[in-house]
Amino acid sequence: MRLNELVDLLALEHLTPAVSLDRPVTGGYCGDLLSDVLASARPDEVWITIQRHINTVAVAKVTGIAAIIVCKGIRPNDDVIHKAEEDGIALLSARESAFEVAGRVHRLLFPEGR
Amino acid sequence: MADLHIHTCLSPCGDLRMSPRVIVETALAQGLDLISVTDHNTCGMAGTVGDLARENGLSFLYGIEVQTQEEVHLLAYFDDLDSCTAFSAEIYPFLPDVPNDPVHFGDQVVVDATDEIIRVEPRLLLNSVTLSLEEVVARVRNRGGLAVPAHVDRTGFGIMYQLGFIPPGLGFSIIELDGDEIPPGCEKYAVLHSSDAHYPEEIGRRTSLLTLERVSVEELRRAAAGVGGRSIEYGRRRR
């Protein structure tokens, strides 16, 4: 699936409009501990989290994930948004909890289950 | 010899025996010259322990261990009780209004110099304030304090575990380590070993040897930079 389709289907708010959403998404990873995400997230996955610290952008960059989905309506501060834009990381905001978002992403990416 | 990370009976996870009297007696018995008490998100015991320490010839730094929004544990040290208390009061409104459940988390009591309970802290202290690491560091500095990330190499609440790496630009000069190995990327920091004691038996189990002209936050900063023969040496364990 392409990231822009996923964003539309989940009605996510795109906080970094300058960053293109035209890229593939192959899976997802959930986590709020950046050390764990650094070790475990894979390229082209979406990262589902409530972590909003500026280090998220660096972790996204290093792991090659497709986008950060910040859940529960949490909005990272402007420094984080600017840094994400600078580094070309798509920052998305979801109103739902991480559990809800992960369930929906999983259903969309793996309709047959996995 | 210094142990700058000791919890009192006010921390829910701190043993009820951790009264000012016991802390000071144990510190002296351990041969320490300088201590700091650093309770979670409060400095409600610092005044009493500080007075008793000084009366008994122990140097004292006022401290607090803040848990930031990212669940990073950050130590803050201050020269005087007023600054530390003002900082503590400043962050208290950002501590979620969740009542402490002593059965599950432990008691949060303020005691006097004779071990008498004078107040029970109702709000759960073992929680994150709704302020980012950056905001807490800025508030510490505004009050003239020194911010030191706690046990950076620890799984759980250590800055590297929570945030992957120490964010650049926060201006830390000192980090606290549990272990002896400097984590990658931390070579530029001065290292403190402290006990993080929650029980009397743990006081002084990890210490640092500080060479300072006097005990102050500014002297610690200079020691971190190695100015004029000042130094911070870690890896001093109780024999």
Question: What is the CATH-assigned architecture of chain A?
Answer: 3-Layer(aba) Sandwich
User: Can you give the mean pLDDT of chain B?
Assistant: 95
How many distinct folded domains of chain B?
Answer: 1
- Assess the beta-strand content of chain B as a share of residues: 15-25%
Structural class of chain B: alpha/beta
Q: Please report the total strand number of chain B as a whole number.
A: 11
**Average pLDDT figure of chain A:** 96
| Total domain units of chain A | 1
- Residues in helices of chain B, as a percent range: 10-25%
For the sheet with most strands of chain A, the description reads: 5 strands, mixed
pLDDT below 50 for ≥5 consecutive residues: which ranges of chain B? none
Q: State Rg of chain B.
A: 16 Å
CATH topology of chain B: TIM Barrel
Corresponding CATH architecture of chain B? Alpha-Beta Barrel
- Give the termini distance of chain A in whole angstroms: 16 Å
**Broad shape of chain A:** globular
Determine the CATH topology of chain A. Udp-n-acetylmuramoylalanyl-d-glutamate--2,6- Diaminopimelate Ligase, Chain: A, domain 1
Largest interface: A-B, 13 and 12 residues
Structural class of the helices, strands and pairings of chain A? alpha/beta
CATH superfamily of chain B, called what?
Answer: Metal-dependent hydrolases
